[in-house]
Amino acid sequence: MRVMGVDPGLTRCGLSVIEGGSGRQVTALDVDVVRTPSDAPLQTRLLRISDTVEHWMDTHRPDVIAIERVFANQNANTAMGTAQAGGVIALAAARRGIDVHFHTPSEVKAAVTGNGRADKAQVTTMITKILALQQKPTPADAADALALAICHCWRAPMIARMAEAEAEAKAAQAKRTYTARLKAARA
Questions:
Q1: Which domain of life does the UniProt lineage start with (predicted)?
Q2: Annotated catalytic residue 168
Q3: Is 68 one of the annotated active-site residues of the chain?
Q4: Are 143 and 6 within 8 A, CB to CB?
Q5: Is 68 marked as binding a ligand?
Q6: Which residues partner with 28 through β-bridges?
């Protein structure tokens, strides 16, 4: 499975692509950070992010996009910009028929470090070890994008099982409803 991890942001937007193998084996294919000047108009910044992300999607052909979920407890302006960047990325993925999954920072930290409250240094250290990188990815947005991709790759089997169980439950409920209607119509 090829996963594109995205740490959305207007000033710095981390992008990564990893390839998942059997078990927990993952390989980094690419990582970078899109930067936009804070004094540029919003639409120009979003266009730069969109153009870069679309190029990455066309070049790397990911199976799924993993984006960090925005939390409202951040600075309101930061949260708004992060959400806007994430929306642009999700839209680009939807246009290509690529599934998008959002993961909270604590889910990502727990997946790669075992601790949902790990700090950025711990996450970066673990990413470096997991991917057997020669040096730590910088800036933190690059490491976070890699962590998001790894988190999704490792959580994907569980997500698929949960979706399958939900679909089976809905089908069973639909069957019960249909059966009840048939009995009511016969009575």
A1: Bacteria
A2: no
A3: yes
A4: no
A5: yes
A6: 18
Confidence (pTM): 0.84
pLDDT digits 0-9 by tens, 25-77: 999 999 999 999 999 999 999 999 999 999 999 999 999 999 999 876 667 87
- C-alpha closest to that of 5 among 165, 106, 153: 153
Taking the C-alpha atoms of residue 35 and residue 172, their distance in angstroms, rounded to an integer, is 49
Here the tokens at position 182 are 């048939």
Among candidates 6, 17, 13, which has minimal Cα distance to 61?
17
Q: Is 141 labelled a binding residue?
A: yes
Q: Which of 112, 110, 114 is nearest to 143 (CA)?
A: 112
Q: Is 164 a catalytic residue?
A: no
Note the CATH architecture for domain 2-185: 2-Layer Sandwich (3.30)
- Per residue in 75-85, pLDDT tens? 787 888 899 99
Contact 56, 50 (CB under 8 A): no
